[in-house]
Write a structure and sequence with these properties.
Oligomer: single chain
Order of helices and strands: EEEHEHEHEHEHEEEEHEEHHEE
Number of helices: 8
Shape: globular
Length: 370
Amino acid sequence: MGELLSFTSRASRFTREPFSQVEPLGQEWIVKGLMPATGLGFIVGPPAAGKSFAAIDFLLRIASGRRVLERRTRCVGVAYVASEAANGVRKRLKAWRKANGGNAHLELIPQAVNLRDEEDVADLANTLRDMRGDLDADDIRLGAVVIDTVAASMPGGNENDGADMSDVLARMQRLAIDLDLLVLLVAHTGKDETRGIRGWSGQTGAADMILTVERDRDDPALRIVTASKIKDGEDGDRFAFRLETVVIGQDSDGEDITSAVPVYEAAPDRKGKKAKPLNAAEQLVLKAINFVTDHGVTHAAPPAPGVPDQQKAIARGDVRGRALASGFAVADEKPNTTNVRFGRALQGLVAKGEIRIEGELMWRLQEVTR
């Protein structure tokens, strides 16, 4: 028999929680129910599916304090590591800036990081710490780093090799914990797209969130985003967008330089049909939207891709007030619970193609008779 180990008496790092005192920790989000404040996430899809466009749009909305898919966001700083096609990312960032206006707490890192090299990852961490210090001066938290793409960030590595990928994932998880942020990896799906992230199967288990981007089979110009895995949240939500061309300048021959930005619409269900009928809360809110549109104060909709000229919009607060006055509130319900239900109803109306929301303004996308 081998010699028994001797354990010296010292302070332990392990703690104990009596059963009667066990309480779950609150989950913090940078996008409510979609992107956690700390952890490891993936945006995945086949080539040309639009995953980088989706990543850029989501993170710029976060970095400018705008809602993402009508979900509440926490405005944080974002670092975008363009490990491949850095100039293409520059074009997409400029297109978004031209289409959406305003400023965002996002910085581009145009050099590829080698995720297999401990020193290279340490250099990235130091750069992020410098960025965090600059953001702290503006009272903004550094909340996310995007690495686009995994394949371009591990030269000589094998995505199918568990040893290679487990090392990479361990470094990314440590980066997330050490800097208290979300590490979001843009990755490819394999030949069988239904099997998710290309390569080692352990990637899925390590992920706190996975958003999958794919083209619609019947309408290839339509991109579908599915929340494939949301740890401590709900999986399965589906969103859709099309890419709209934006002219960002002219070249030396006077020809247009273009890129594109996502414009969202209702996602078809998996059988190709449109979204489910409106639930009771959505019907009440839609009636309030119709009333305020016809009888309330209207505003000019903000300029954005896909928004017609002279589009009239209404204020979120006016819709909420009308909905509450028309029976949306429930007796003895806490105000915060009512606000959550109202937000979910708006989110459902966006997903089902009834309305569009930009900031605090919204408008109908079609004439309705409900």
